[in-house]
């Protein structure tokens, strides 16, 4: 199933995408819902961020090649995380498919994409084993963990580097019934492929992260877990278009604007 | 005005505290609301976390004595933040006044309180000056930024150290119309005073933080900003009771339990 959130009149509604149409739903996918008779052409609706999470988790550094590239740029030896210590991102920064990434005036030129898989939690979950962890995932969507590298390196936290408004594109929808390790990520800048990798090559997979997190904390329906990216990342400039494609999910596409 | 959230039958409701009673309200303090005719004795209601924030900000290291004490324990020279780089905490960890802080089995004995002021945002806010920043605060409440120091020191992020379930007591209510720099914090462990300080001695005040944050991000109604603590902090053990009192707000009280 393919779930979306979209603008329906003045309010947001959840919808199920069937072929080229969206069926509006009363309720939410995480609780009870009923399909309404309101059906819209998919191309005519404004898609919103597919879920507003109670808590926004991010694995951060979770792929070996990405960790190596980052370290090399800093003239350091790469170090890989030895345990699944999850980090956070912030809801203010979320934008939907097709909405512009806005680079602030005072950002350096080092504003870069990080295309990644996003797991959406479906059920309250506490102290689950790795074997059962995927039972608590509702579905998967796509995230672009846009990052300003000079702030990332020099600020005490990642607040500006990662959470400036518009720096967290997510969408276009959530797809259920997928097996995360089978998925493949392709990142395009202005239609040219700039990166691709297999989700399954993560240092810690969805199963490991959810199981470990849940030993200490309760995951709630709608919580999201961004899985980290692999490979090199490049600068994005005013006028660029960045796309993150994940097999079996779709394409998250966002134009880039620099404030003047 | 004193605002709370409380359990009303099976659901949560907002209320206004008047003397020793709670007046149930339809709506929320951040939008429109009307007082209902349902009035309860304050001592008879179960208070809930006074707001569930869209984004949960925390200033982290923001007082000189606390930074000095922490550095000394590590055998390091203290370093003070030179700019207001805000961090994050997570909603899963929030508990209300009177609810127990539960220390996991595998935590060290270094589980410590950090009593602090919490500013609650009332209006959407982007690029405000320091002079105008307090206009966007709805009111103030109290937080206890419970921290496991070995995890804080050794994990790659603060996820377990700061955000284990129950590690973020907040409440008991939100008080409007206060001037933050006038407030005084007193922390008691089992009724003995273990710390006190003036909010106004922060390295970065509420005004500075909100203004700076808002240069890059949009603050939303209900977002919360925890201001950091000052002074030494001590271990809490099974059976302890920790209280954070802030003048003109009240007392946030939580018992402590260690899992067996």
From TrEMBL, chains A, B:
Residues 1-50 form the Rv2993c-like N-terminal domain. It comes from the Archaea. One of its GO terms (biological process) is small molecule metabolic process. Keywords: Metal-binding. The keyword Ribosomal protein does not apply. Residues 56-256 form the Fumarylacetoacetase-like C-terminal domain. One of its GO terms (molecular function) is metal ion binding. The keyword Metal-binding applies. It holds the Pfam family FAA_hydrolase. Belongs to the FAH family. This is 2-keto-4-pentenoate hydratase. It comes from miscellaneous Crenarchaeota group-15 archaeon DG-45.
């Amino acid at each position: 199933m393919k779930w979306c959130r979209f603008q329906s009149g003045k309010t947001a509604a959840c919808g199920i995408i069937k072929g080229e149409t969206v069926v509006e739903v009363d309720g939410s996918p995480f609780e009870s819902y009923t399909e309404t008779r309101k059906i819209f052409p998919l191309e005519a609706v404004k898609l919103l961020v597919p879920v507003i999470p109670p808590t926004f988790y991010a694995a951060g550094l979770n792929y070996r090649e990405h960790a190596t590239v980052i370290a090399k740029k800093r003239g350091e030896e790469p170090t890989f995380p030895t345990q699944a210590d999850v980090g956070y991102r912030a809801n203010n920064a979320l934008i939907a498919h097709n909405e512009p990434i806005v680079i602030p005036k005072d950002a350096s030129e080092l504003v870069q994409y990080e295309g990644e898989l996003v797991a959406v939690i479906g059920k309250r979950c506490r102290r689950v084993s790795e074997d059962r962890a995927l039972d608590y995932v509702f579905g998967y969507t796509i995230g672009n963990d846009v990052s300003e590298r000079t702030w990332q390196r020099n600020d005490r936290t990642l607040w500006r580097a990662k959470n400036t408004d518009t720096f967290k594109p997510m969408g276009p929808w959530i797809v259920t019934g997928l097996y995360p390790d089978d998925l493949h990520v392709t990142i395009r800048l202005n239609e040219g492929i700039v990166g691709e990798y297999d989700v399954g090559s993560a240092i810690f997979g969805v199963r490991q992260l959810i199981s470990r997190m849940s030993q200490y904390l309760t995951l709630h329906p709608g919580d999201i877990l961004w899985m980290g990216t692999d490979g090199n990342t490049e600068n994005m400039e005013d006028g660029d278009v960045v796309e993150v494609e994940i097999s079996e999910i779709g394409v998250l596409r966002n134009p880039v604007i620099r404030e003047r």
